[in-house]
Structures are given as structure tokens and as C-alpha cells.
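Q: What structure does this chain adopt?
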Amino acid sequence: MIRVHHLNNSRSQRILWALEELGLDYEIVAHQRNPETNLAPESLLAVHALGKSPMIEDGKDVIVESAAILEYLSQRHAGGRLSPKVSSPDWPRHVQLLHYAEGSAMLPLMLRLYLGRLGAAAEPLNPRVTSEIERYIGWFDEGFVGCDFFVGKDLTLADIQLTFVIQAAKLLHGLDKFPNLARFAARMSERPAYRRALERGGPSIFA
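A:
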């Protein structure tokens, strides 16, 4: 049985969504953020030295990092579903977007989150952070005109991975300048598997 160490209001929601889309059995080990610091609890450290979520246990394997977990679930347990084959012309774009989400797009959003806690001290940095958000989020908004999904004609892991980025951008920056992404995220939130994941994982400020 796959065990998901699920932290409230975190990236682990995308793992629950993927498991529901793939139709895989799993159990949730729930962890709650500290209400004062918003940090993950030390209970996660008992499972992995980084003490982070998302994290899954599958037998003796403990896997961290969203993209790695998504690829692991698809390849190890679902015959490669939700992921183009390496021989497919869609594969290069898929693998790029799968890793772009955390490798590039989330960084300026996390900076916005942390700077927001500094008040006036953050003012000199805010214009640069804003320009970086609009650059990195705008890049895949512009590439999404007239598309139903980011890769090909069906849902892939890249869509699941990027949806959280869009939701974070909505919360921390707003999506007024990214109408294509706003429509996409709204449509994804209506998927039955997405709704089931929320029911099992609990409410999320990103949903």
C-alpha cells in the first residue's frame, strides 16, 4: 500500500490528485502545519531526514520531490499512464514542464511569500520579484493559447504539476495577467479525481 505523508496546504495535494487519476490504492498519513509558524511538523523528520512533504512510502522506498513522486507512481504502478512515452514527440515538452514547475516557476512565488513577512523591509525587492513572477508564469500562459492541456490532447503529469503553481500564483500574485492559466486551473478543479483528492486530503488554501 502506498502511504502519502500529506501536509495540509501543501504540494502534497497534487500527489493525492495523481493517485486518484491513476486509480491507485493509497493511505494518508496526515501532518498539520504549526499554526503560528506555518512550518511542517517534526513528525515528518521521522520518515525522511529532510522532513518535507510531499513524501510517499512504498514498501522500503521513501520518495520525496513532487516530480519524482509523480514519475515514480506512473512508471512503477500505472504502466506509464499520464506520461508520454520517451519516443513520443510530446515527451520533451512534458519532461521540461514537469521540472519547470519547481525548478523555475515556483522560485519567485516563494520569494513573494517570504518577502510578504518582512513588511516594509521587502519593498526594495518587490519590483524585481514581481517582474520575475510575470516572466516565469507568463511564459507558460502565453504557450497555452487554444489548448486544453499543456501536452497533447489529454491530461498528463505536467498538468497536475503545473496546476499547483497556477494556484500558488493566484494566491500570492493574482491571475489577472494570466487569463489562460486561470481558465485552465478552474477547469482542472472540476475534475472528479481532483474533487476526490480534496475530500480525502481535506481543504486547501490553494484549491
